Amino acid sequence: MYQIRNFTDNDDIRVLDQLGAFTVVEYQRDLSVSPGNAQMAYFCNEMNVRKRQVICDVSRSPVTVQAGAMQWTVGNVNATTGLKGVGDFLGKAMRGKVSGESAIKPEYTGSGTLVLEPTYKYLLLVDLADWNGSIVLDDGLFLACESSLQHKAVMRSNLSSAVAGGEGLFNLGLTGRGVVCLESNCPKEELIEITLENDVLKVDGNMAIAWSGSLDFTVERSGKTLLGSAASGEGLVNVYRGTGKVLLAPVRDGAV
To answer: Which of 11, 19, 141, 170 is the most exposed place for a label (fewest CB within 10 A)?
Structure first.
């Protein structure tokens, strides 16, 4: 048996969200400051730049996390590679190579508590039941998920235009029943959710952070002809076609 005190029961920590095996907490103030960085800490707090952290209850479900994300564990928590043999290792290594994700994501099982490294990014909990059991993520979004979810590399439909548009050829896809935790540069309150029913969404830039696996994702010219694309000033755009959902950030990733 174990007890954790002065963590979630601390008045400086607020629980933001709870879903499946995951709880997201936020530090309301940075108390570990000195006179030299007190001004920065004050303005960070005023602008909602705060540390956030994920707590995983592995007794509810085994969890798979991004390599290097674990900060501490307590209780009966066992870390494994999640590999099921040489073939599984080669498959995961290939998927990691093409999608830019870590090839081996550790899997934690048992009946204790796992706490991930704190981050200043926004932590989003997504139930794949709300996405018809399939979601595709933009690069760098994955932080952790319940191990019941299957991982796969999703290839774009038209490779030549993806290369021309400076985008990657593959994205990480998750399928099954369970919850995934995303590490986003944009808070949930600012994300735009678009639901398509046999329709088309065109986006100039990598503003989409996640989309349904049922959607056909391509990179295309904004106009029907090269002259039309040049006249519009947009060039190539990301196109999501079919039935499903897309989560859009208000500005493209990395923009100020």
So the answer is: 11
